[in-house]
Amino acid sequence: MSIVKENIEVSIDMPSKNHSKLQGRITTLLNIGYEQVYDVFTELSIQMNDKNYEPDIAIYPISEENWRHDEITVKSAPITIIEILSPTQGVQELIDKFEEYFNAGVKSCWLVIPNLEIVEVFTGNTLQKQTFTQGNIIDNSSNISLSFDKIFRRKAKIF
């Protein structure tokens, strides 16, 4: 659930242990595989279309660091946003956010559903999606590919 006050959305969703674990793993995999291409942020305050958001993970083209001047709220849309469904959220709530993200210029949105071990990658304003339950998660909008097994730490099965 979110509270909107003065055009600022404040999320009161309670991330769980699994939510936090997956957020850390995905961020680590992105930083390892794409550190020369993208900057990866967690819980970044972003203003898009005069509304503030705080997605679980936001991916931007790499930019030069400016340690002397920080930004409290970033005013540009990321290339990709990743949202991890928490136990207190509904899927429709995140799909509605995805529509807002796409209208603001985001190219792709990932929906990670921990308890079902599913990752859905949405692209475009029509919310076209690909569903992943194994193999590599491929996002053609950002040219990102991550191992599903590494995200969920699946062990190789021996038959």
What is this structure's SSE topology?
Layout: E1 2-5, E2 8-11, H1 17-34, E3 38-42, E4 46-48, E5 51-53, E6 57-61, E7 80-84, H2 91-103, E8 108-113, E9 118-123, E10 128-132, E11 136-139, E12 144-147, H3 148-152
Parallel strand pairs: 7-8
Antiparallel strand pairs: 1-2, 3-6, 4-5, 6-7, 8-9, 9-10, 11-12
Labels describing this entry:
single chain; 159 residues; alpha+beta; tt1808, chain A; 6-stranded mixed β-sheet; two-stranded antiparallel sheet; 3 helices; 12 strands; disordered N terminus
Oligomer: single chain
Q: Strand order, biggest sheet?
A: 3-6-7-8-9-10
Provide the domain count.
Answer: 1
Poorly predicted regions are 1-5
Q: Write down the CATH topology.
A: tt1808, chain A
Keywords: Endonuclease, Hydrolase, Nuclease
Protein name: Endonuclease, Uma2 family (Restriction endonuclease fold)
GO molecular function, one term: endonuclease activity
Domain Putative restriction endonuclease: 14-138
